[in-house]
Design a protein that fits this description.
The protein is mostly helical and about 110 residues long. The chain contains four helices and no strands. The protein is elongated.
Length: about 110
């Protein structure tokens, strides 16, 4: 049999983020106080928070995340901001690739 899936409420996730942001608690202390079994969870939630993907905190457990899914919960402005961010990153990658390609052709 597989291991039991740990399910944390959105409230617990947000509380863990608040505690981490306060810089008064270590991951271990947060885990003990909130009953979180793995520090990786805290790191993942912080990553989502910092990248503006807070809507993922309410994602149902066991549901895989697919790029741009869940955006129906975001306002139209937030959806457009996400799209702009995605296109800016894509543009940066293409520019870097062109630079690399030019350096190859100069050799």
């Amino acid at each position: 049999m597989g291991e039991k899936l740990n399910v944390y409420s959105e409230e617990i996730k947000r509380r863990a983020i608040e505690m981490k942001l306060s810089e008064k608690f270590t991951n271990q202390q947060i885990m003990e106080q909130l009953g979180i079994r793995n520090k990786t969870q805290i790191k993942r939630w912080m990553k989502w928070y910092r990248s503006g993907e807070e809507y993922r905190l309410s994602q149902p457990p066991g549901q895989p995340y697919y790029f741009r899914k869940g955006s129906e919960k975001l306002s139209e402005i937030d959806q457009l901001k996400k799209k702009v961010e995605y296109l800016e990153i894509k543009n940066e990658i293409l520019k870097k690739y062109q630079e690399i390609e030019r350096s190859w052709s100069q050799k």
